[in-house]
Design a protein that fits this description.
The protein contains two helices and five strands, in the order E-E-H-E-E-E-H. The longest helix has 17 residues.
Length: about 90
């Protein structure tokens, strides 16, 4: 399972959605990066494959960063999120 974390302006905790395979996670990551780089404000509607009832709508003007990480045995026991480096110190 792959987790895509989104950091929004003025929001201390990341929002996240999950994808079952790496290809889907990388595709979503690229789509989000393109939306951030386009300069055209729009709303991204995201769904989660891990929790199918979870849906997010995010204004691209509020996005600051995006990260993809892998959960489970292949990803290790690392805590997901942007602040892992400080947590491990």
């Amino acid at each position: 399972m792959f987790t895509i974390d989104l950091i929004l302006k003025y929001t201390p905790m990341p929002l996240s959605v999950q994808r079952k395979d790496e290809e889907g996670a990388q595709s979503l990551y690229r789509d989000i990066c393109e939306a951030m780089n386009s300069g055209n404000p729009k709303v991204l509607e995201l769904t989660c494959e891990g929790k199918v009832e979870k849906r997010l709508s995010i204004a691209t003007t509020e996005l600051v960063a995006v990260q993809v990480s892998q959960k489970g045995p292949a990803g290790g026991d690392r805590q997901p999120g942007f602040f892992v480096a400080t947590a491990e110190s």
